[in-house]
Fold this protein.
Amino acid sequence: MKVFINTRFAVLVAFFCLGLVSLSENALSDEFSFFINYTANNGLPSSKVYDIMEDSKGFVWIATENGVVRFDGNDFKDFTVREGLPTNSTLRIYEDRFGRIWFLSYLGPISYYENLKIHPHPLNSELKALGVGFFTDIYVDSLDNLLLAKFIGGHIKISNRGIITDYGAGKTNNAKKIELIAKENKLIGWFTNSESGTLSANNLYSPDHEKIILFIESPHINTNLAYCSNGKQTAISIGQELFIVERGQIVEHKPYKGLITGLLYDQNNYLWVNERFNGTHLYANNRFDTTIKSFLKGKTVSKVIQTSDGNYWFSTTEDGIYFVPSIRFNTFNKNTPGLANDNIISMANFDSVLFFSTTGKKFFRAMITKNHLNKIKPFKFNNDIVTNFNDVLPISRHDLIITGITYEFVKKKKAYPNYLNPPFRISMAGYGYSLYKTSKNEIIVCNKGGIQAYKGSRLIYASIEDSFHVKTFCVLELPDSSLLLGTVNGLYVFKDGKYEKHKHENPILTTRISTLNLINGDIWIGTFDNGLVIEQDGEGKSVSVNDGLGSNRIKTVLQMNDSVIWIGTNKGLSKVLLIGGGKMQIISYSIWDGLPSNEINDLLYHDGFLWLATTKGLVSLDPNLLNKHRAAPVLIVEKIAVNGSDTVFKDSKPKLACSQNNIAFYYTAIDHYDPKKTTFHFKLKGMENNWRQTNAKTIHFDDLPFGDYSFKLKVKNATGQWGNTYQFDFAIERHFTETLWFRAIAVLSLLAMVILFFLFILHRQKKRDELKRRVLVSEQKAMRSQMNPHFIFNSLNSIQDIVLNKKTGAASRFIVDFSALLRRILELSKHNMVSLSEELKTIELYLSLEKTRLSGKFDYRVSIDESIDNIDMGIPSMIIQPLLENAIWHGIAPLPKNAKAYVSVKISQAQNLVYISITDNGIGRKKSLEIEKARSFGKATGLSNINERINLANKIYKANIKLQIDDLFPEKEFTGTSVRISFAIIE
């Protein structure tokens, strides 16, 4: 139940608001097993806190002198004047049934938080005109009528229509009766009657209020009043007096020295009473003769609440707030009378006597009574102890065996310390890490040299005698009387005087072993870094943090009963529930569950209570109270922003315009259990299907394309618990340019444009090709025009030679043939293509003239292969003659006069290709080139002209004409030349 402070505790309010009292800061003792103190140094705007409240969503709201804070367990969100508060100094926080968070300020104006914004009350000016000063409490009924408790008595009602009614305070002198008006565990008014008059509870506007009438004579009628109820009992405090009421009758009355500042019945029906300057007091079982505990002594606790997840919050007027996850742990530490150290190394009990050691070389005994320690006394030795005690093994209430970390226990190398106070007998079992008692009452000491066995204080065996010298941390006697040793190198078995490596297949069991236990016939093996291995019938089952263990470093294992095993680790306490069928459930607890420390060094179970040796003291607890699972985190999406603007959606699946494609989600999680380890997981279906993890509290999606989307968000806490999942479905509409009709029109338009463009390009290319063809034809004609005067020049030279040699008849025949050849050349120059037969006639005439010109210096032969089936096929004109001319002029002509020269022309066909082969036995290309270089005049252009003509013909007719020139006889002086030309048949 929550605590509610009445409207007329003027003294306390004045103390809070006017700051009449200032306390010096005192060191806080470890009153709680674990707590977090939030002050102005780590998140709060002020350490002076007037009120604290949990809202319906799970947020904790904190009212301070310098503003209001909303806390989700990890982040503080401040609200001040800048965010809309009328004034920073806020006295009370209240949530109404409509989810609005109300704030009462010291200067009077009231305001409320709704839809992520703070709104000042529209009637603040009218309220100020009433001269109330400020209000100390608030209530909103189901009709949205507002009740405000005034600082100086009475209350004000603001109806849902905005009508203000002022109810003044009644007469209070010599009061005999108090009438309390309450609703929903909220004290909304109180009146008194005296001999001079009575104020009836019916004066209040609402008839459905619960009326509690008490006949109380008290000098504190005009002072502070607090009220709370658990349904069966009602606790009422007036000033310094506490009353417990059942069925209208006072059943308990308890006075306090200081002013009572607040009351609370928690979820266990324990009553908390806050006393000014003296902290808070906890009572159980409706009994006030015994105080369970007192906390925060020397401080003024303004409010105590227990949130829905079971955590406690304490607000103070000088030291901020305290978060306490549990009060179920009894902690005994250096602040406990009789103890001097927090770090408990080991412990053991014999009946109700507890023996334990701490750092600082201390050793204690105490009496266990339920979950408390009594008569804590240190052992005092005559000698100065120089070591910590690693383990203790009680043989009886007065007979102990202990071991230490070093061989020498006392100064001056005396073997054993001498206990000062009989009747205790202490036997020092050498030095070691742990002690173990066998079925033969032999004491095994595990140390860095293996094991040693003792009878009392007498050493009877050392493993070094059998050449076993491995650092050993623990030992376990098996049913066959063999010993299982846990060492730095894994498990060993000692049987029949022999040491052997334990046979197993689990590689974990070759690592450092920290503890060994025999539980229900199975061997539980704790390791230093690799978790737990449970060996059953030779098979080992590994258990690690992945299965729920708090840590893989096992420090101690304790069997409480057949189904419950406790495991102490360096990161908390783990409870293993054996369900059956080889299955188990593991629940782990840490400081966030109230443990004073995560480091558990040893465990003990006695008389229904579990005892923990930790680095922060001895802890006792009722294990049955740890069965409750902690609350899962609560995910809250606070707002959605579209294109940077906060947006409220009316539809369950809104459709956003194509321009509204930038969306952001702002969220938080309420989780007070190790909140730094809280993680968020999200995915946006429609864009990706994989979950992504983040610690951020904002997710942005920018430039989303059109389509349907489903945003999912969930939260997981430090223990792996998943909270609620948030889902938001939305759609982004297509841009008109992405609609089907627009795309159809666009495609058709584009297709038309492509066709028109293609036709334009085709037409333009056709014109270019025609122009190019004409240019090429002109170039070819020009090339032939270049070759005609070249041939004419050579032929005239031949005629000149004949005439000079006075061969008139020969000259006449030559001229006739020359003129015929000239006419043919002129005729052929008009055509790009000629028939093969016409080309043969031309070269026959040309070869005849050249033979005559050179006085029969060579013979020639023109042959056509039988493969030629069409002598009238078309070939490029004047393509053979220049090659013959080149062979005669550059190959044959330079030969000696008596040389027997020849020129051969052979024409053949293979498939669709024509091959023309021209061979001669002239001087060859190399000597011809030397002659060319020796000339002092023009350079031969025949071969270059031939190449140009071939290139032109290839471009025009795509004839793929290829020319190849080789030496015919490369080993001879006159190598001769072979010219091979091929081209495709042109129809």
